[in-house]
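Recall from the previous lesson that a structure prediction takes nothing but the amino acid sequence as input. Here we apply that procedure to RDD family protein from Kribbella jiaozuonensis. The sequence below is the only information supplied.
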Amino acid sequence: MVPREAQPYQGRRAGLITRSVAGVIDAVVVVVVVLAGYVGVNGLMFLLDPRGFQFSEASPVPGVATASLVAVVYLCVAWSMTGRTYGCHVMGLRVVGRRGERVRPLVALLRAVFYVVFPLGLLLCAGGRRHASVQDLVLRTSVIYDW
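The prediction returns the following tokens.
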């Protein structure tokens, strides 16, 4: 059921602000997952050797690489299965293909890699009627309002 206030926007392309807020929410989800993994690994190490336990060092390069990998997997799975991540769900958005269909897994994977490697591509959707990011232009996808 679409809220009355949202009905005029249903199916229209989403703009920069809405997509950015969804992206921030998704980034928080990724950070929480990575931190939970870090705590889980250290908890397992503690259970295996409580006397000799020390927290593993969290260095930046492996941390960023792990977070990037988690983000790509999270985005790819969400976009290919339902067309929306948790951030998209909260903001009432859906990623669709050029004909309005759910994106295929390969397109979702390429879009996720593009999204993580080149996040500034989102800024392009601020201009123009199409509200298309670089990722949308290259892969022929769209982000629409879909409650």
